[in-house]
Automatic annotation (TrEMBL):
Protein's UniProt name: (Fe-S)-binding protein
Cited InterPro entries: 4Fe-4S_dom, ACDS_complex_subunit, ArsR-like_HTH, HTH_ArsR_DNA-bd_dom, WH-like_DNA-bd_sf, WH_DNA-bd_sf
Keyword Iron-sulfur: yes
Keywords tagged on the record: 4Fe-4S, Coiled coil, Iron, Iron-sulfur, Metal-binding
PANTHER family named in the record: ACETYL-COA DECARBONYLASE_SYNTHASE COMPLEX SUBUNIT GAMMA, PTHR36214
Coiled coil: 165-192
Keyword Acyltransferase tagged: no
Domain 4Fe-4S: from-to ranges: 200-260
Length: 265
């Protein structure tokens, strides 16, 4: 049964596609042979869809017979119980536009760089999670319904409300270029469906974590200091939320960096 972050991402990706959701719902009524599934999901890409569902641990293949795995059954049951129904697909989603760039302010972390607040319309609330796999360095944060995308030094956060915050850009031209590229990547996914790109493997070292903590050793997290906190965070014994000073505006950039890195721990 999928348990970790990468397995969860496989399941999210598998269920982000309409044909695959159709297959899963079809299998909810019992095992089927491949020919029957072809009738409802088409023949052309069936092999591909079955492989994705199998990799996500949702189905099992035995010769020409396809059935839901135990995990697949529990997954469907959980969806019904939580009332979350289906994950939205992208066929009804309209292409996005960058409606406006509202601010260009110096970055707190590096005053030679800028941060930008922009607006994306229509807002992508509810489908940001589906878009996560199209970015090599993208992390969806459920808690905030936001998608953090990293490109070089630039960190962009897209919120479900349509707000886009971009940090560490050199100037307005770079911000516009980056926003345009972001828009094109998203619109391509809306048009053609979500095709995941290879995830960049990120090895996180203790010092990567430590350097983004406030390093004030205030003890508000209950640890002796930031270094001890970093060790425990690496070991999965504490969560980032325990470091409350990170919520202060001066550490906004640090918090985003840490949230990004924490996914790879
Ligand atoms: S609360 Fe944050 S800043 Fe304070 S000691 Fe803990 S890790 Fe460091």
């Amino acid at each position: 049964m999928p348990e970790g972050t990468s397995e969860t991402k496989l399941v999210n990706f598998a269920m982000a596609n309409k044909a695959r959701r159709k297959i899963i719902n079809f299998l909810a009524n019992g095992d089927r042979d491949i020919e029957k599934i072809e009738e409802i999901a088409g023949k052309k890409t069936l092999e591909f869809h079955l492989k994705i569902l199998q990799d996500a641990g949702l189905i099992e293949l035995e010769g020409r017979n396809v059935k839901l795995s135990e995990y697949g059954k529990n997954f469907l049951k959980g969806k019904k119980e939580s009332g979350t129904e289906e994950i939205k697909d992208l066929s009804q989603v309209k292409p996005v536009e960058i409606a406006e760039i509202r601010q260009l302010l110096p970055c707190i972390a590096d005053s030679s760089k800028f941060r930008v607040i922009a607006n994306m319309a229509p807002p992508l609330g509810g489908i940001l999670k589906i878009l996560e796999p199209i970015f090599p360095k993208g992390n969806y944060l459920d808690r905030k319904d936001s998608l953090i995308v990293k490109s070089g030094e630039i960190i962009t956060t897209i919120y479900g409300s349509g707000k886009v915050s971009m940090r560490m850009v050199k100037n307005e031209d770079e911000a516009r270029e980056e926003l345009e590229s972001l828009k094109n990547t998203i619109n391509e996914a809306i048009l053609k469906g979500v095709f995941p790109v290879p995830r960049e493997k990120i090895r996180v070292e203790l010092m990567d974590i430590y350097k983004y903590l406030p390093r004030t050793n205030c003890g508000k997290c209950g640890e002796q200091g930031c270094y001890s906190f970093a060790i425990k965070l690496m070991a999965g014994q504490v969560t980032l939320e325990k470091c409350t000073p990170l919520k202060e505006s001066e550490y906004a950039y640090n918090e985003e960096q840490l949230q990004f890195l924490a996914v790879y721990l």
